Amino acid sequence: MKSLMIQGTSSGAGKTTIVSALCRIFSDKGYRVAPFKSQNMSNFAYIGHDFEISRAQAIQAVGARCEIVPDLNPILLKPTGNYYSIVYLNGKRFKKMHAKDYYQNFVNTKGFKLANESLKTLQKKFDLVILEGAGSPAEINLQKYDIANMKIAQKANASVLLVSDIDKGGSFASIVGTMELIEKKYQKLVKGFLLNKFRGDVNVLKPGFQKLKKITKLPVLGTIPLMDIDIPEEDSLHAKPKDFAWTRKNISKIDSELDKLAKTVKSNVDIKSIERMLK
Length: 279
Description:
The chain is α/β, with parallel strands linked by helices. It has a single domain (2-37, 115-277), classed as Rossmann fold (3-Layer(aba) Sandwich). Helix content is 40%, strand content 24%. It contains ten helices and twelve strands. The strands form three sheets. Strands 2-9-1-10-11-12 form a six-stranded parallel beta sheet, sandwiched between helices. Strand 6 and strand 7 (84-89) form a beta hairpin. Helix 1 (15-28) runs parallel beside helix 2 and helix 1 (15-28) crosses helix 9. The radius of gyration is 18 Å and the shape is globular.
């Protein structure tokens, strides 16, 4: 049983896309792979026969070539406004909750227990579970309620890769700042960095890589170019997601896009180093 986790320095860094690509890459290598996100906030769901999970984890499952099941996303929050969300547990509607009630009375008790049970189920069934974090692990005002990043990474015994969106600028500062603000007991879980959405000559970045390694003692394991991919987005910052019909034709189209995505990521990321982390 092996676990890898992709966390980000911010929302919109590309965690979902990179997990999708890695699911396909490791599936191609012969691993039985499953994606996992303990808690996701999204109004875009995959609706199965008798359950709902985030659409993102369903697409990642297509990448992994695994069955779409509730354990891939045990907690789904559908925001309704005014700090309220409809909470789905294991794919079933639980109840509408205010953020304060959710954080103070649910997330660290029943919520974390539920997420951990789903994670264990996947770890028993698959060779590799690729976890996706949420937002940033360095939100210091919310860290004690954060069950989607370092707490679940520790439970999974996962190697963590931290991804940053370099197209927005400030990636090096974001990475160093994130590492500084992660609780000390979790810093050792981070094994390297990925820079996403880069345009230009990667050689320009190499002096920055050297300084970053000197500061953090960790390597940059890949610089992924800005890609034009036709995969439904999540309703995160700056994204304009569209409805998606789960027809055979559309799934086949996503499958082809995932192959192209995986090819690009594989050629720009040190997959061999990542694989060594998992041994």
